[in-house]
């Protein structure tokens, strides 16, 4: 029997949050080492199973699956990106930090999933500009004793 390393895949586990119909934000929660089987099921070293990646329409729409996986990469490729380390956790942490500096938005349109990944800092700046434009002006009404007197008289 051929000796293969089943735990050579690294994946980010995301919390799926529906923000409106057919729109989801994917928030990275952890990085895990494991393997993908032929059905695209990711199994972590400790035996947790995650169905198809978040690029699947069915997985996004399934409310019973709050956690999904994505951003999978082979461990060997991580070593090429970040350099070899004695401690595997350090390389995985660097990868997680890279991923968590982005915001991932998944949209379902015409039964197809589109994924947008944007730097979190740019999304925050864009959101701040949008908020400033859309914030309604609040008028401060002057308090007048005449107005209060009219209300009291009406109440009597």
> Roughly what percent helix?
25-40%
Rg from alpha-carbon coordinates = 25 Å
Secondary-structure-based class equals alpha+beta
Largest sheet: 7 strands, antiparallel
Question: Based on DSSP secondary structure assignment, what is the total number of beta strands?
Answer: 7
> How would the global form be characterised?
globular
Poorly predicted ranges = 134-145, 147-156
User: Helical stretch count?
Assistant: 5
Strand portion, in percent?
Answer: 35-45%
Distance between the termini: 95 Å
Mean pLDDT: 76
> What is the H/E order?
EEEEHEHHEEHH
Structural topology:
Blueprint: E1 9-20, E2 23-36, E3 42-44, E4 49-50, H1 57-61, E5 67-74, H2 75-82, H3 88-100, E6 102-109, E7 112-119, H4 120-134, H5 145-155
Antiparallel strand pairs: 1-2, 1-5, 2-3, 2-6, 3-4, 6-7
What this model shows, in words?
The protein is an alpha+beta fold and 156 residues long. It is 33% helix and 35% strand. The chain has helices spanning 57-61, 75-82, 88-100, 120-134, 145-155; strands spanning 9-20, 23-36, 42-44, 49-50, 67-74, 102-109, 112-119. Strand 2 (23-36) and strand 3 (42-44) form a beta hairpin. It is globular, with a radius of gyration of 25 Å. It starts with 8 loop residues before the first strand and ends with a helix.
Which features would summarize this protein structure in a list?
156 residues, seven-stranded antiparallel sheet, globular, 7 strands, alpha+beta
